[in-house]
User: Fold these one by one.
Assistant:
Number 1:
Amino acid sequence: MERTLVLLKPDAVERRLIGRILGIYEEKGLKITALKMFKPSRELVEAHYVEHKDKPFFHELVAYLSGGMVCALIIEGENVVRTVRKINGATDPAEAEMGSIRGQFALSKQENLVHASDSPESAEREIKLWFPEG
Ligand code: CMP
């Protein structure tokens, strides 16, 4: 069974959208198998976004994600990586389909509510970072 790592970012938590977003994944029939909420360290967020370390928005992105509470979850299911990315919508909310989470609820490219792994390999790497306890 495939797994993916999902983050409900600080804007989702601050806007009280946790329940609504979890409901969208669950109503689709996906299974949430782990969930925790905490304020991640700068080191964890830098390791998570290492592939973006040379991008101009990297420092702001790290400050934003490590600046508030994040809800981290593992979701399991068939083709869950692709399915969850479709449910989340495009990174830029202006491009995201209206039925997606970002299409419905987000406006900003940075504060775009959710993160999901982009491949099964990234998912396993990210799960190890966010759930080191196993
Ligand atoms: P995510 O899917 O978590 O992957 C990388 C994140 O970087 C992305 O969501 C956004 O939060 C952020 N991001 C991507 N592109 C930009 C951009 N052009 N400006 C600011 N933040 C961005």
Note: The chain is about 40% helix and 20% strand.
Number 2:
Amino acid sequence: MGSVRYRAVPRYYITTPIYYVKDAPHVGHAYTTVNADALARWHRLIGDEVFFLTGTDEHGQKVARAAEEQGLSPLEWTDQLAPRFAEAWADLDIANDDFIRTTEPRHRDAVQHFLGRINDNGHIFKDTYRGLYCVPCEQYYAEDELVDGDRCPIHRIPVEHLEEENYFFRLSAFEQPLLEWYESHPGAVVPESKRNEALSFIKGGLRDISITRTSIDWGVQVPWDERHVFYVWYDALINYLTAIGYGRDEERFEAWWPAVHHLIGKEIIRFHCVWWPAMCMAAGIDPPAHVQVHGWLLLGGEKMSNSSVNQISPADLSAEYGVDPVRYHLLRDIPFGSDGEFSAEGIAGRYNADLANNLGNLLSRVATVVGSKCGGTGPAPDPTSRLAGVAATVLAEATEAWNAGQPHLALEVTWRLIRETNAELEIAEPWKAEPGAAVDAVLGSALEVLRIVSILIVPAMPATAQEIWRRIGLEGSPADRRLPGAAGWGGYEAGRPVEKGAPLFPRRRG
Ligand code: MSP
């Protein structure tokens, strides 16, 4: 007898890929993580119950070799590296709810349980594998996928011949079920071009894939044959289930799965949009509901990566520009779904235009004039201000953009409100006028815009949002307000102390 189950609050489960602990994180990794954090924060703002997961992918040959090069055991190595990811994310103000390491016992148990189910369901068999393997990809390639004869199409290094006894997953049996599933779930992979890429992999024909290794022992042991460990990708994908209680806490698992949002880079579409849904079907659970694919952060036209020299550390960048400007740049300048060039000129240009000249300028001129014309006490907003309409439109459009997973559009729209408010001030010139009702109305409305903007920028720049909130005399945190109600015009109460303070974003030269 099932009881009636309903949820008053929608749930939003968002994940990043788990990062290989081959080296310290670079800005390319930060790109995914900041996007996921912003979306998680947005969903908290609109009142959803959020679970935001990130972590580290610690097994496999790639990590074992990196450890060996350092003269360390794999576990010693990953014990050193995993905290560097966690710290990098804390430094970037990432508010993840969990941080999973694939070397944790909870994950080993989930992997063994999940793959045990697939085995029990008859989708695994044993055979000898001969193939061409790229270690940095942790993936076998068919000959016709190679470039320049024997090179991996991603890393452009020669692949290796491997031959071993493996267990195989009968992926070929899922060709039709996957096509049918995608047919009935048209929005499962966005953008559309990436969905088409996934579909063409499937339509191109699926071969059974090897899922275990005997050549290394750095991995999760196969429960029914202890000479084997699971291939790292099979182990890694399951992290998304481990963290929500798969195999341990069915009620919790069912509360969060399958309505997940996987954020991934475009190079791992095949794993997330072909293998992963097939594995889920084979284990008897639903495939993930949403995969959002983004492009690469490029430096000089090349993907920023661990195996190239062009990596930049998030900490270096934040030391130079500040945490929130780095977050803002990553969200605002690289449209989600496309590649984007990363450059010092790009980040500095965006900083000056949007942060110093617009947002920072608005706050400082309003605070200064409230100081000189209103004795430092904020007046009430004008209920008839034109800006009320602008704010309402901006809220509606920003909401649509955030909900569609398009932070760059949401921020572009939000800045329209800031620009229009600066323009109003330039027309009204309250700094030249005599104190009185007209000046109060203009400044009260500008303070109201700053209040609304503080809430709207929480996902992108949480610390800046908090600081503006505090300077205009508000208590608590903008992150604790709930949209859309909190952005209704007129929420700023007169009589609050407004603090001038140092410029939020001093203009940068060059
Ligand atoms: N460990 C696997 C993922 C397993 S998920 C079950 C992996 N790790 S990775 O560290 O190589 O890359 C993880 C993710 O980092 C990529 O999918 C992508 O989201 C992000 N990025 C790494 N370099 C990037 C750029 N240069 N630009 C944008 N994102 C980048 O693959």
Note: The first strand starts at residue 11 and ends at 15.
